[in-house]
Design a protein that fits this description.
- The chain is α/β, with parallel strands linked by helices.
- It has a domain of 136 residues: 3-Layer(aba) Sandwich (Rossmann fold), CATH 3.40.50.
- The strands form two sheets. The protein has a seven-stranded mixed sheet with strand order 4-3-2-1-7-8-9, with helices on both faces.
- Helix 9 links the parallel strand 8 and strand 9.
- The protein is globular.
């Protein structure tokens, strides 16, 4: 069994803004109405994202430039390297799509990171999702069941640490050995009676793991 893994959500955790917000603001005015329907649970998460990502109507180079413009926590690339140097594996677990995640990781020179997310691809001026209902990680609501992924990783690793910021992250938090909670996830986990560490940056996570002797 491997020693440990660090698993992080992407949008709003590694990045400072969700990609769907950028798309709605720049290209999809009707997305604001759709956002309200999603938040009131009239439509599923994956249906909301599929509608937003397929409403961009731009050439791929423009979409990639938009992705590269997404601001990330500046400590993340060095944090990932420190995890890898400390005999840990780093994973990204996202209910968005791997399409923009891979572009942004490449832009920041991040290597050796496996991404668990909904498969995405560019076609006809938009980003489309390829959801496989037969996949072992399939979720009808999110496309990917984050808790299942963490549960599987726990069979491979002695310890699995997780970081997230929003409602979809409250499910894998139940399975992780320790969760670092950003933003609204803090209140969600508190209400569920789950233990977590309050954080606002990856520097705070790094400090915590160094004090525990997990990070070199």
């Amino acid at each position: 069994m491997k020693k440990w893994a660090f698993v992080s959500d992407f949008d709003g955790t590694i990045t400072k803004k969700d990609f769907y917000h950028i798309v709605i603001e720049k290209y999809f005015e009707d997305g604001k109405k759709l956002y309200k329907q999603w938040k009131s649970e009239e439509i599923k998460d994956i249906d909301f994202l599929a509608a937003v990502f397929s409403s961009i109507d731009q050439e791929e180079d423009i979409i990639i430039d938009d992705i590269k413009s997404i601001e990330i926590d500046e400590e993340v690339p060095s944090f990932i390297r420190k995890v890898q140097k400390s005999n840990g594996d780093f994973f990204i677990l996202s209910a968005g799509t791997d399409y923009y995640i891979h572009h942004l990781l490449n832009h920041h020179g991040v290597e050796g990171v496996k991404v668990f997310s909904n498969e995405g691809y560019y076609k006809d001026k938009n980003v489309h999702l390829n959801i496989d209902s037969g996949h072992p990680h399939y979720s009808e609501r999110y496309g990917i069941d984050k808790e299942k992924v963490i549960t599987e990783l726990k069979k491979e690793y002695e310890k699995v640490y997780f970081a997230g910021d929003s409602e979809p992250d409250s499910h894998p938090a139940k399975a992780a050995d320790l969760t670092f909670a950003f933003s609204q996830l803090q209140e969600l986990l508190k209400n569920k009676g789950l233990s977590y560490v309050n954080v606002n940056s990856f520097k705070e996570i790094e400090d915590h793991l160094q004090k525990k002797g997990i990070l070199d």
